[in-house]
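User: For my dataset I need records formatted as: sequence, then structure tokens, nothing else. Please produce one.
Assistant:
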Amino acid sequence: MADLLLIRHGETEWSRSGQHTSWTDLPLTGRGEEQATALRPLLAGLTVVRALVSPLARARRTAELAGLGDLGDVEIEPDLHEWDYGAYEGVSTAEIHRTRPDWDLWHDGVAPGPAEHPGETPAQVGARADRVLAGIEPLLKAGEDGGGSGDVVLVAHSHFLRVLTARRLGLPAADGALFRLDTGTISRIGTEHGRPAIVAWNVSSELLPG
């Protein structure tokens, strides 16, 4: 069987402070590096048929520390970059609510930013997620049909992976709001009776007993 494994990168300064981080290429904090390294035993022993990672340094470093390179080639996939937050880059939800108390990212999108980063709507992020899913669908389908064994791994960012999860489950992009995803975690989407289904969610070494 082929499952889809989703890894959110480890902690950065802005993920810790709650600031929206898209194209700002922050490194992992010390704790973020520890979180990423702690994923290594959770991935050990897996057969990975394809591993894709966001081009941003925090995701690439997480993939490296988690040992994905030991399990096969890791490919950069531009469509895995985080939601373009436009004018809200580096701004926390609490700060946005001071002027827009009813604002909700999942339904309202973001305020327009500079020309090179104008911001994205939920539907636009969903379209990117759909492209990623279309690209890996043959591998997932082959596993479901017994034509191969191994998992597909995506290493990326919270909001994007939440949108991708919603789309994989056949839900609107905005329903990514239902899937909390913490830093340094791994989640698994498999199938049940031929339908995509969540097998494990938001798992980290910090949540495991002992």
